[in-house]
Design a protein that fits this description.
This protein is mainly alpha-helical. The chain is about 30% helix and about 5% strand. The strands form 2 sheets. The chain has a two-stranded antiparallel sheet. Helix 1 (about 45-55) crosses helix 2 (about 65-85) and helix 2 (about 65-85) crosses helix 3 (about 110-120). The protein is globular and about 40 Å long.
Amino acid sequence: MITEEKVRWRKTDESDWLINCPEHLTLDLVYGRIYTPGASYTYSQTNDFILNFKIKPSELNRLRYKQSAINRFADEVIELFKGDFLNTNDNYFLVPIPPSKSKSHSDYDDRLEQVTKIIAAEFPNVTNFPLVSTNCSGESYHESGKT
């Protein structure tokens, strides 16, 4: 049985190693969940959540779980932002990471843009800004076998 985990957002610090962002100590980067690759949805509440978040659009009978995960992700970030994280005098832009598939592909999935739209609708100083798009479809990282 999966037990409910308290999501504790934390700012990256010297104990975190971010190979693609070596200057992370000077930025306000936070994370709230640790996914365990290769483990099933029964491994943890986070794995269950993430696996539902990554359900393909073509899996019509499972889309209600995906939508629930999208809403939950947005709610968790909104809760973080309502704390002391956002300065109401500043403007913020949320740039969703594009999916591995182009918009013309049958498995195109705009789940992160859906999340950023929900979040931006909650705050007058936060803008959804889908700056990057995918022109050529590729293999999904989580389906590549890489960890």
